[in-house]
Amino acid sequence: MSQLHKRFSDEQIKVLFQSYCQGQIRRADLQEMLRIGKSRFFVLLKEYRRDPEAFSIVYERANPQRLSAEVEAEIKRGLLQEKEIVQDPDLPISGYNYSAMRDRLQKRGIEVSLTTIIDRAKRLGCHKPRRKRKSHDREVLTASIGALVQHDASLHLWSPLAKVKWTLITSIDDYSRKILFADFFPRETTWAHIQAAQTLIQSYGLLLRYYVDSLRVFRFVQGRDSFPGLPNQGRLEKARP
After folding, report:
1. What whole-number distance in Å separates Cα of residue 144 and Cα of residue 43?
2. 71 and 108 in contact (C-beta within 8 Å)?
3. pLDDT tens-digit series, residues 95-154
């Protein structure tokens, strides 16, 4: 397929986009005339609407400028640092964040596209293809907010700069999926869970059910944890294995 600027002049493209903006021609028909895809069409349309008089496609004739050796070295260094983080088993990070890397480069005065960073990442083995996610089939166990809160804790090295692992305790409403409580604790202790439950209840009120894991803090032993005269005692609902 020949390049667009070799088949149409700037004035011809302007007339076509003007007709499209006035509703005189459909997008699909215009794309077929120009022999371009949907993404390319909207890029050109955005440029045209920004300044119809100055709109031009002549820039397509220019060869893309190559990155300097210094910029290439900075991209490589950043990608390899990112790779160390992703491969660190103590960090809860399983994928690359190329957008964040581009933003860090921009703060240092280095302008580079996201596509370029991904291209270099593939060359250096710093790329993980996105896994196809299964359709969301989570069964909602409740019919209203507050009917069930899922309470859990996770121990990780939450930052590459951290020197010790911290426990993140969270409480999530099953129906709305809203995070009702989340905080870091040096260790997972009974008192930490009590503080989490206290904050949650003081903020949102009493809950119908509290869904927890099998940590010893939540285990109910009939002989040890029963009180005389209270046959129908409530207890925390443990997570099923």
Report:
1. 45
2. no
3. 888 888 888 888 888 888 888 888 898 888 888 776 665 554 555 567 788 888 888 888
CB 212 within 8 Å of CB 238: yes
Q: Does residue 157 surpass a pLDDT of 70?
A: yes
Instruction: Of 108, 98, 84, give the one whose Cα is nearest residue 160.
Output: 84
Among 127, 200, 145, which Cα is nearest to 170's?
Answer: 200
Per-residue pLDDT tens over the stretch 168-192: 999 999 888 899 999 999 988 889 9
What's the whole-number mean pLDDT along residues 185-201? Answer: 90
CA dist 73 → 111, 117, 212 (Å): 14, 12, 48
> Are 213 and 167 spatial neighbours (Cβ–Cβ below 8 Å)?
no
